[in-house]
Amino acid sequence: MDMSSEILTRIGCILVMIPIMGFWFNKGSAHEKLKKKYISRDSFSLNLAPLKHKRLGFHCIILIIVFFTAGATILHQTFQVTLEEVLLDTNLRIPLRLSGIKMTEYNLQESASQRQVEQNHGFLLIQDVVLLPDEVLLLVPLSSQKFRFKDKESLQCSFEDNFYTQLKGIEYLDRAQGVAAVRCQAPGQDVQWSAKSVALVDNIHNPVVTETMKVNAVFMNYSQPIEWHHMVYESFITGKDIVLFAKGINHKQGLNVATKDLRCIFNGTIETTVTVSAQEVFRCQHPEEDVLYQLYGSKITLSVHGNPIPSVIYYDMPPSYHRPLRYAHIRTTESKKMKLCACTMVFNVAKFIREWVMYNSHLGVEHFFLYDNNSEDNLEQILESGLSGYNVSRYPWPWAKTQEAGFSHCALMAREKCQWMMYTDVDEFVFSHSWLNKQVGPEVEGIQAVKSNSKALTAGALLNMVMSLSSQRKKPSRISESHIGQVSFKCRNFGPSGLTEHPDRGVTQGYTCRERQEKRFKSILLLEAASPSLLNIIHRFQLKKGYKTLYVKSSMAVINHYKYQAWSEFKVKFKRRVSAYVVDWSESKNPTSQDRTPGLSNKAIQPRDWEHRFCEVNDTSLKDFAIRVFSLVSARSPKCVDATSPMVSNSQLELLMGALSILQSLVSVQTTKEHSEDLL
């Protein structure tokens, strides 16, 4: 029996049963009394508590089954979903409250329909194709957030005319439905291809089967990939509005398209106003409540002067309307929030990250948010194995030249978790001479003695400094200047310090010579003080009215920026600058930019005297501080013994272990020969 016959049969049964049930229900005075007793006309609800009459109970059960079957049939045909999907609120998340909404009027975007086709038939479909610099990004909706590709090392990217390129990586984006971001090496300019031709295959060019999922070349939206520099690429849904992140609208720093010339477009049909236009951040109002469910899963984009731009973002309703909630944070009281967190954007920093996390963790940073911009050095594995005892979250962020937008997104995402957010790079370390000069106490022996002097240590020193500075209030001249919403520190730039390779013991131990002049500022932001525009320039945010920035004097604290490192590390910066409004060094534009390095051209050619440049002041203060602090930390807690490893090279560690082995053998000279051999 086909589906249409089955539907007609069910409808026929229902039509036959309704008059029979009606005739039974209305006959006789006894049944009328029972009807009044057990069934309320106003609410049309059954009261089965006093039910004793077996015959009536039997017929009531039949009545419930009939209405339940009829409802399921109508629901299935009207909404095109199964009853299980409705009850579990999964996949399409059709609401249980259906009044006033005609689901048959849905006009979902084609790609949203593809997502459901994929789940019904077991196929993974490529939803969007983005052309990044040197890469092609495939966005693949997944059946669930837990789905993962297996044996991805054997996968290849297939283009037209049997042309194959290397699979560079697969990331899983933080989206409500689950989306895989598949990065493929871009074909050469001489290769003609379309978005429809892209697929994933195994190393012998067969379709890939992962469990019950097949990676297929099906792609039905358009033939040309989206250009990375002109698109809506990310979003953040709040209860009040939608924050879209888009490139290609506000081209220059400080020159923003007026909000009156912008519209937020849902499904190509519904428009809402744009309330904020700043850098790559645009805030849009939600559609009217009566069409929210109709628009779920449809594409969102921005129109400029009536012209929509490409987008890879699909509408997920406000957190209060469905579950599971995207970025749904239960509102946390200030007392339960973490006091100080840190956020940074990273690329291939696996060799640096351990030193930076441990140093800042000692100073009071409680949570680290890493926006990973397509790293290729196994950063995820390093975080799992080398920093498992620290609170570090890694967020895949595949979008090129979007540092400001990433910081804005981080401010939104972490606002319910943290009070203050430090925005520095992994080669930047906050330092105060007062920490080095702090009285540690007399020489002590043993772990317990060191613990008794823990108040003299500098644990949490940065957190304490921020809390102290933010609580200081001079007599304000205006009410709007009474609250400190941001603390900014000057930067001291360090040079290669005579090194030709990356220092084994870390940047704080290897680079000790710097420029005399202090340049720029880096900041720690009170998240609630950030302006709705989320505007930020060089790690400093625009603040709401009622807040101001406190610029810390260098005598109190600075940031040691290990900027000009050994050439093998420094030349990587020629690949691409992360800021949206900074010209890449390989380009000849804007040669006088402060972001450029003095004395270098637009080619990564090492100067002869590079290792001796930018060296005017010999400064070992932070190096000495780190040695003192981490040696004390290792004595205070066995959990932190590995904190000394960045300060000790492998060869030194082998010598220390050898000396320890000899010492143990001398101490145990009275033991048996077998035991002595075990020690040696």
Features:
single chain, 680 residues, alpha+beta, Immunoglobulin-like, Spore Coat Polysaccharide Biosynthesis Protein SpsA, Chain A, eight-stranded antiparallel sheet, 24% strand, globular, disordered C terminus
Describe, in plain words, how this protein is organized in 3D.
By secondary structure, the protein is α+β, with helices and mostly antiparallel strands. Among the domains are: 77 residues; 106 residues, Immunoglobulin-like (Sandwich); 260 residues, Spore Coat Polysaccharide Biosynthesis Protein SpsA, Chain A, CATH 3.90.550; 32 residues. The chain is 27% helix and 24% strand. The chain is built from 17 helices and 32 strands. Strands 21, 22, 23, 24, 25, 26, 27, 30, 31 and 32 form a ten-stranded mixed sheet that branches. Helix 7 links the parallel strand 21 and strand 22. Helix 1 packs antiparallel against helix 3. The longest helix has 26 residues. The C terminus is likely disordered.
